[in-house]
Design a protein that fits this description.
Blueprint lengths: L1 E2 L17 H8 L4 E5 L5 E2 L14 E5 L3 E10 L13 E8 L4 E5 L13 E7 L7 E6 L8
Parallel strand pairs: 1-8
Antiparallel strand pairs: 2-3, 2-4, 5-6, 5-8, 6-7, 8-9
Length: about 150
């Protein structure tokens, strides 16, 4: 996992709540946290509350590898917040982590024309001066792909 210099990416302050604190602590340490069921080891994104495989509510934080695949994406043309005005257009992706969960995240560091379903991604982290660090994804150019 890496910290990239994406200093041009600014936005509204991202702040944790009680349920997301461990996720943001991990992001601050350049690690991607996911939830995992203690009973069956199924992995989930941060919104999960119950295991969909076994029904357990015993979920714990675990560190993901940071490897992922782009499932789909959309291009933001109209800034959802004034802080994004100078950054449009930019892609937001539906990303499948190697561990299985799907998450929505910003795709950074590449031209929109390079994106296609199935391309390999890897996590990077944004560490803003104010607010919590958070994950983004970039093309994993070290992984050979066949399209």
């Amino acid at each position: 996992m890496s910290t990239a210099d994406f200093s041009e990416i600014i936005g509204p302050v991202v702040q944790r709540d009680g349920r997301s604190a461990e996720f943001f602590d991990a992001a601050g340490a350049d690690q991607l946290a996911i939830l995992r069921c203690t009973r069956c080891s199924h992995a989930f994104n941060l919104e999960a509350r119950t295991c969909t495989d076994c029904g357990s509510t015993e979920l714990v934080w675990d560190i993901a590898t940071g490897s992922a695949t782009l499932v789909s994406w959309a291009v933001v043309h109209h800034p959802p917040h004034p802080d994004f005005a100078a950054q449009v257009p930019f892609p937001i992706g539906l990303v499948e982590l190697a561990e299985g969960p799907w998450i929505n995240a910003r795709i950074v560091g590449s031209d929109i024309a390079e994106l296609s379903a199935g391309i390999p991604l890897r996590v990077a982290f944004i560490h803003p001066e104010i607010g919590d660090s958070y994950p983004v994804f970039q093309l994993d150019r070290d992984v050979a792909t066949v399209h």
